[in-house]
Amino acid sequence: MTSYVSPATGQKQLGLVIDLDTCVGCHACAVNCKEWNTGGHSAPLPDYAPYAADASGVWFNRIHSFEAGEGDDSRTVHFPKSCLHCAEPACVEVCPTGASYKREEDGIVLVNADTCIGCKLCSWACPYGAREFDEDAGVMKKCTLCIDRIYNDNLDEVDRVPACVSTCPASARHFGDLGDPNSTVSRLVAERGGFDLMPELGYKPINKYLPARAARKTAGCTGAPAALEPAGVDGAKGLLRWLDRALSR
Amino acid sequence: MDGSPAAGKSVRKRTLTERLFGGQEQVDTSPKVADEVKYTTCYMCACRCGIKVHLLDGRIRYIEGNRNHPINRGVLCAKGSAGIMQQYSPAKLTKPLRRVGERGAGEFKEIEWDEALGLASEWLGRIRASDPRKLAFFTGRDQSQSLTGWWAAQFGTPNFAAHGGFCSVNMAAAGLYTVGGSFWEFGEPDWERSEYFLMFGVAEDHDSNPIKLGISRLKARGAKFVSVNPVKTGYSAVADEWIGIRPGTDGLFVFALIHELLRADRIDLDFLARYTNAPWLVIRNPGQGDDGLFTRDAEGNPLAWDAKKQAAVNALGVDVSPAIAGEVTLPDGRKAVPVFQLLAERYLDPSYAPDEVAKRCGVPADTIRRIAAELAHAAFAKQIVLDQPWTDWAGRRHDKMIGRPVAMHAMRGISAHSNGFHTCRAIHVLQMLLGAVDTPGSWRYKAPFPRSCPPPGKPGGKTVAANTPLGGMPLGFPLGPEDLLVEADGTPQRIDKAYSWEAPVAAHGLMHMVITNAWKGDPYPIDTLFMYMSNMSWNSAMNTAGTIGMLTDKDPATGEYKIPRIIYSDAYFSEMVAYADLLLPDTTYLERWDCISLLDRPIGSAEGPADSIRQPVIKPDRDVRPFQEVLIDLGARLKLPGLTNPDGTAKYPGGYPDYIANHESKPGIGPLAGWRGEDGESHGTGPANPRQLDKYIEHQCFWHYELPADQLYYKHANRNYLETAKRLGFIDKAEQIVLQLYSEPLQKFRLAARGFGPVQPPDRERARIEANFDPLPIWHMPFEEAAVDNDTFPLHAITQRPMPMYHSWGSQNAWLRQIMSHNRLYMNRRTAASLGIADDDWVWVTSHHNRVKAQVRLMEGVNPNTVWTWNAIGKRAGAWNLAHNAPEAVRAFLLNHVISELLPERNGYRYSNSDPVTGQAAWYDLRVRVEKADAVEAGETAPSFPPLKTPPGLASPPSILRYGADFKSRDAAEEGGK
Fold it and tell me: With b meaning 16 or more CB within 10 Å and e meaning fewer, what string describes B207-227?
């Protein structure tokens, strides 16, 4: 097994902040990820039986939609999930060949396809189910945080973000250094009460989720009264109030 | 066949030594992304987003949103991001086909284009020389209706429309007749300033990127977002409040809001007096031919009662102090009342009180009262004041712009009901009462709108003659009975009965009735049905099985098909292909020229008008041609006047791009507004510019004119804006566009129903017209609900749009179909329990027309009286080159099977299942019962149809895709070469 040293506080930890308040479950991030990455660092992301009964494929980012709660209080949740680039990644610890590794310079967890033997120990170890096995090539693949975009000199600087962040129409995905408490993403997490996915497991995921804002459906939630006061008598006589209204065009 | 372009090369397995001792990974963080980046416009749905296509080694490496584009500002949805798989779809047609077996059997032979076009021109030429009406030319979701409509007019047939009749004509017509704009295409919420956003039933694949961008912006600012929709998915899932309304009752809900606002006098009277017809005087003369019309002066101007002068004056004048209530006696002795009084009398009626409508709507009365209070609070207590001077229509300067920050949006859930036209008008009335039309924070017009209510142009086709163009465009806006397309006895003149007494304001036609009517020969038989990009034998049809039968039915006397000839153009092997006699294969959106024109369905925004083009970014690898190119070629072969020079040669020898740059609909106005004139310096209007397309390509394939700050609001009454609009060719006169609370054209139809005027409806239609042409919005129970026994059919059934799919297109896409390949029937958990239905059960869904079998998924977030499913996921076995046992064919289903295109028989007649004003297909009116299927019936959906045979020229789909592997091995090769 690979020995692994936890990153020091303040060390660069690139990751994603995903806003569950505005994610509408449109799958834009998942598909844009697929199209970038199938020709990128981990190319290809194969699709099996793509036009047949049991189509499946390698996706680095998947959206799970479900309901939580009952009746009027139920919520429809759209939950995008990809590798969380844990500070203490189980997948790296269990890798027998050192193919799974966490980069010191930015915290991105990668798999070296040349040394991966396809034993799948990492996918068993990952509590988030974020690893994707390429059966065709016999290697494990996963979200690279678009390592071939974020430093790519061939792209305009504004485009050097993961494909999922660049394409998200709901502005629900943010990218940055979560190791720096003053970064835009860290401040966003602080302001919005961002949380770790399954923190009790202790893998210290870098990616954070922002919770849905509280529903606003009670009287006074916008400052308005519970109902409007009638302006006068009801019925046909109610029209009298407009008879002498001085108006101009 | 794994050697197809999409399949990619197999990756060589590495040896064990390589695997274990491969050494430290060298990550190439700056790989080359593209040899070339080309800009164009997406067509994975109707949004028309700007895209950048990255090409590497002549293939598509990556498609992303264009950051500079006004529609999507850099983002791209799931559909747009899956463009690569659409381009390499194995369902692409490859060559013109001619039917050789029975229609529907899928027996075709490949033919050359010369033969195909020769055959088409022979068939069409014969029709044109005898009776041009015998060509019914209907296009689907295409974005070139200004060309296709004009082509039909040149041919001389009135029988043209696109898919709007089953999509959104209720929204379009109600908006255009009421406010001179409409939701979605001609208007948008002020996302940056709105405090309160009320959204009604939206198809989530329409305008999807702008709405998603907008909602996230609203939420970031803390504005409240209320979604009125029977189903809590998509946008409703992120709303601050979800109103799970009962389908078809939105009109009552809106009336109750109006009732509350009127009762509390929390309305914007200044706005109403200045910008709407609230003060216009309506004649009260029951039983006479002028009852309910506006009083007018000798010049035809409407009159208002001037409270200071105590006289009826020109309501359009400047110095008027209009009364909005009180009956007056006109000098000629007739009585008249202002529109506002009629409106207030109507909606103050106790029958519209929240307590009265709550039960029917399924929305608690307290909630309705609270929403009304919140609307008023947002509009008035949170009034926006911008320090932005502007000049009104009368030339008066105002120092500030006052905003009512309440925005609204509505789409399919309002549109696809038989009461949709009036419900949509009701929403516009609510907006006007709040003063929330084109003000800061409210709903705003997208330029080139507003236009007059309704816009100019009446439907053409009153007279049709051999070898003669139509006297106008086929589609337009009638102002009264005299504009209908009917014979003297009231018989419809169009095959779809648009602009007849059955659908007088059918501004988009009734595509859903064409096949039924043509099959019946009602009002007359046709010769050729010519369709483009519309899956009318499947997910675009109501009564799918019946439609298939009509397409293949023969006259027993002659042995001829009842619809003698069908020409169809599509890029893909859709379910409709099997029913073509002649198939003209189209290109993909990445292989073609197109223009997204201001004359058609513009992409402008509230900030200014815009249009755009598509340019070919890759060459077709098949023998296919863009449909628009084919249409122009056919037009020249048929010698259509607009497509032929006087010497008989083709007017646009350069095909579609030649037409885009050089065609003028009137002098100075062409398909594209940007870079006109010899020098390319004119915008809006100007002589044709032969280099116009180059200019578009230089500018990332779009043109956007940014309005100055003083023209951004009050466009209907903003002098500088109106003058800009006139200069750019959008409107003829820079006059105020007065918003129409009360719709006089509707009253004109009603007066005809009462026996007044020269154009009279058949007696059968009188009561129907009287009831449905109320000049103020009404609500009636959806027709199907009113016609069937509601104990037998106790539930509403509707569809929702999956965001990653666009109609039937997504299922051929290897990536999108992995997201959704089958659909369940979604039911409220408690409703299901009361019926003894558990999660995962198989059920029969039965309507008055037919039944489907489906598997149930229970949920919380759905109105208890409603079941629903995802739209257009079900596919016919074999179609789209999918395996016959694909989930789309065996575990997915269409609600279309149980929707009838006709209402149940009443008094010996079956009306079309449509809105009685516009003819909009009322497919959300569906009523069903749900019953548990027998255990032996579980496992597959029904009905199931015989598999379609794959047309010639289509390769077997690959069993594995390794798209992108070539780009990787290319990198490796370059690395090795260094």
Answer: bbbbbbbbbbbbbeeebbbbb
pTM: 0.97
CA distance B73 to B63: 14
Which fold is adopted by the domain B172-448?
Dimethylsulfoxide Reductase; domain 2 (3.40.228)
Q: Which two tokens stand for residue B628?
A: 């628009």
Name the burial class of residue B903, with classes exposed (0-12), middle (13-18) and buried (19+) by CB atoms within 10 angstroms of its CB: buried
Cβ of A24 and B881 within 8 Å? no
Nearest in space to B711 (alpha carbons), one of B611, B612, B609, B610:
B609
Residue-wise pLDDT tens digits, A115-173: 999 999 999 999 999 999 999 999 999 999 999 999 999 999 999 999 999 999 999 99
List the 297-316 stretch of B: residues with Cβ below 8 A of A.
Answer: 307
**Residues from chain A contacting residue B374 (CB–CB below 8 Å):** 221-222, 224
Residue of A nearest to B239 (CA): A215
| Topology of the domain covering A14-210 | Alpha-Beta Plaits (3.30.70)
Right CATH for B97-168+467-590 from 3.30.70.3450, 3.40.50.740, 3.40.50.300, 3.20.20.70? 3.40.50.740
> What contacts B337, CB < 8 A, 6 or more positions away?
B281, B282, B284, B325, B326, B327, B328
Kindly determine whether residue A169 and residue B209, on different chains, have CB atoms separated by under 8 Å: yes
Which element (helix H / strand E) includes B372? helix B365-376
Cβ neighbour number for residue B956 with a 10 Å cutoff: 12
- For residue B164, give Cα distances in angstroms to B16, B412, B510: 61, 11, 8
Q: What is the dihedral of CA B290, B295, B301, B302, to 10 degrees?
A: -120
Report the 10 Å Cβ neighbour count for B977.
Answer: 6
Please name which of B164, B783, B772 lies closest in space to residue B422, comparing C-alpha atoms.
Answer: B772
Q: Which residue positions in chain B have pLDDT lower than 50?
A: 1-5, 9-14, 18-23, 976-978
**Burial profile B594-615: b = 16 or more Cβ within 10 angstroms, e = fewer:** bbbbbbbbbbbbbbbbbbbbbb
Angle at B331 between CA B330 and CA B334, to 5 degrees: 45
Considering only CB atoms, which chain A residues are within 8 Å of B959? 48-49, 52
Where do the DSSP E strands lie in B727-846?
A: 795-800, 825-828, 842-846
Strand B311-314 and strand B303-306: the pairing is antiparallel
- Which amino acid, residue B550? M
Residue B329 and residue B310: Cα distance in Å, rounded? 11
Q: CATH 3.40.50.740 occupies which residues in chain B? A: 97-168+467-590
Q: Model confidence over B664-700: pLDDT tens digits? A: 999 999 999 999 999 999 999 999 999 999 999 999 9
Indicate where chain B has its CATH 3.40.228.10 domain(s). 172-448
When the candidates are 2.40.40.20, 2.40.170.20, 1.10.10.10, 3.40.1190.20, the CATH number that belongs to B783-937 is 2.40.40.20
DSSP-based helix, strand, coil % in chain A, nearest 5: 20, 20, 60
Q: How many residue pairs from chains A and B have C-beta atoms closer than 8 A?
A: 364
- What is the three-class DSSP state of B396? coil
B77/A26 Cβ within 8 A: yes
Confirm if B625 and B120 have CB atoms less than 8 A apart.
no
- Range(s) within chain B of domains with CATH label 2.40.40.20: 783-937
CA distance B800 to chain A (A): 13
Chain A closest CA to B11's CA: distance in Å? Answer: 6
Q: Distance from B480 to chain A by nearest Cα, in Å?
A: 28
Q: Give phi and psi for B920, each to the nearest 5.
A: -55, 130
Phi, psi of B531, rounded to the nearest 5 degrees: -130, 150
**Residues of A in Cβ contact (< 8 Å) with B325:** 239-240, 242-243, 245
